[in-house]
Each structure stands twice: as structure tokens, then as C-alpha cells.
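Give me C-alpha cells for this 249-residue protein.
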Amino acid sequence: MRLQGKNMIVTGGASGIGLATVARCLKEGANVVLSDLAGSDGAARAKALDGQGGRCLFKACDVSSTAQVDALVADAAEELGSVDIVFANAGIGGLADATEYTDADYLRIIDINLNGVFRTARAALRQMYRQGSGSIVNCASILGTLGQSGTAAYSAAKGGVVNMTRTLAIEAAPRGVRVNSIGPGYIDTPLLKDLPDDMRRALIALHPIGRLGRDEEVANAVLFLGSDEASFVTGAYLLVDGGYAAGKS
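Here you go.
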């Protein structure tokens, strides 16, 4: 098992990419703290997955709260003995023309998608520095480097995640900690299940591989970056996008 003996935290772990990553890493032997909002399905998901390889625990956390993020990492370290891998995945969407964003809407997207990743990484780094080892994977997006109408706040946040990851990687490398990010394309999660057929076909057409991604394919990338197989990989931005960005760079 590729993560045998590793202890992991996944934020935004109750659904979609987060849940797929929890399930995938459990099967590879990791003990996983599935974290999500208190009102989510996280507790039930963790209970159902517990023992499917490693232990699975639920810890409620809102990444917009520094106190909750710090407690999440501290509690995981106390419960499991270490925090070896963190997948900072919690995030929200939000489409609007730039002129239509209210300050509150814009700042909420930035706070969760960028500041929340920073809070998570900061707490993880403090713990990992004490251990002298660890791996952080931050969830960015293809919109971390590409623009798209109606995504000013989301794209700003994800672009920030990509470059923040590079900076954290440089800071953390001498301390034995790796920091990387992933850039998913459009993934066939429940968020897209109600799309009209014409819109779904349009999204598929953006990906040269000819389909939308699957959440387990993103989970495989997180597994690799978190594992010792990626021991010489840090500061990377790994696209998992079916070729979406290849013709736009």
C-alpha cells in the first residue's frame, strides 16, 4: 500500500473530489481525517468509509475560521500521532460578471478559496515542521492560469493558490516538507449533473481527450503528490484537465 502508515487530512472531504480522494487514499493504507462543514454529510461518509484500508475520522471545520483550521490540524495530530499529508481542497464556486459582484460575494469566494487554503497550509506547515516531514497538496484549477468570463473572484483565488504554492514550496523545502498544487479541468461531479445537454456538450468539447474528468482521476493525482513516490516534486502545478490548457498556453 502506497500510503501505509501515513496520516492525512482532506478538507472539503464530504463530496466530489474531496470524497474520492478520501476513499482512494484509505485504500492505499492512509488514516484519513475527513473534514467538512458541521452541517455536511461528512460524519456519515467517514463512518461508511472507516476501515476500508485505514481509519477514517470526521472533524468539522470551516476553513474561513483560523481557530477551526488550527484545531483541525492539532486534533488530527493528537488523535493519529502525526499529520503527514494535507489536501487543502475546500472551496466554493460563483459565477457573475465583474460589475455584478458585491463586495461580500467577491470577498467570500476569496476568503474560502484562497485564504482558506493559506490557513490550512499554515497550520499544516507548523505541525510538519515539528515532525521534519510532510506533504501538502493545494487544490487550484485550470482557472489558476487561464481566464474565463464570469469567474473574476474564482480565477483570482485559484491563481493565488498556484503562486502561493510555489512560494510555500521554496520556504518549506529546507524543512523537509513538500508543497504542490493540482489544476483540475471540468470534473463530472454532482455539481454538473443538472446541466442542460448543450452546455454539457460544450464543456466536453473544451477537453481534447473528449470527455469530462472523473473525480477519482483527480484523487489519483493527489495520491501521487502526497506519496513518497513524489519525493523530488515540490512547487509543481499538476494539471488534471484532459488537455484543456494544452492549446491555450
